[in-house]
From TrEMBL:
One of its GO terms (molecular function) is hydrolase activity. This is HAD family hydrolase. InterPro entries: HAD-like_sf, HAD-SF_hydro_IA, HAD_sf, PGP-like_dom2. Keywords: Hydrolase. Pfam families: Hydrolase (PF00702).
Length: 211
């Protein structure tokens, strides 16, 4: 990768900007329903409920209704389901936000995330409580969210739309994601990539971009 070519930087959200722990959601739903976490995971996986929610096939209300049906708990209030679903969201280290704000002075910045409306609302609350930034849209030129786009990574179509709508050239664009499949799909289109892998963070990978 030639750093000097880069004009645009596209960030993933989970485990790139906000720390997450995906199994915590299944654990939270298991505790609510009195079932084993593995059983809950299997039920959700069989019907691809998260994929449907994160591609907009299910609305927030539809997602909640489906969860009630699948876990046979028709009386759960919305906030109980939202809290369980948001259990996987952890913290946003302020230094990552400071880095993004510094990068805005040199690059066009974008966000591309496989996510849902419930998660975005929760992330914005965490962002504001942690840094005083009101919403993700305040950090980026444009925010691309799978549930609004009707397609999710690693489908090539989502990257093509991002490049087109952002008027970006692939070879001038750097994409950071923690998922190897998502990285491979972007790289296949000529996008420059960084696979974010713990214990390293964007603070490590992008240190040279603000120096």
């Amino acid at each position: 990768m030639v750093k000097e070519q880069i004009k645009n930087i596209v960030f993933d959200l989970g485990d790139v900007i906000i720390n997450i722990d995906v199994p915590l959601a299944a654990k939270a739903f298991a505790e609510l329903s009195g079932q084993e976490a593995t059983a809950v995971q299997d039920v959700f996986k069989d019907v691809e409920i998260f994929r449907k929610f994160e591609t907009g096939t299910l609305s927030a209300a539809g997602f909640r209704a489906y969860v009630r049906e699948l876990l046979v708990n028709p009386d759960w209030e919305d906030h109980l389901i939202d809290t369980a679903w948001n259990a996987l969201l952890l913290d946003i280290p302020p230094k990552r936000i400071e880095l993004i704000q510094n990068l805005r002075q040199r690059y066009r910045l974008f966000l591309l995330s496989n996510t849902s409306s419930i998660h975005v609302e929760a992330v914005n609350k965490i962002l504001y409580q942690t840094t005083g930034v009101e919403q993700l849209q305040d950090l980026f030129e444009q925010v691309f969210l799978s549930y609004e786009m009707g397609v999710m990574k690693p489908d090539a179509a989502i990257y093509q739309r991002v490049l087109q709508e952002g008027t970006m050239q692939a070879h001038e664009t750097l994409f950071l994601d923690d998922n190897a499949d998502n990285i491979a799909a972007a790289a296949a289109l000529g996008i420059q990539t960084i696979h974010v892998q713990k214990p390293f963070t964007i603070l490590d990978y992008l240190a040279d971009y603000v120096s």
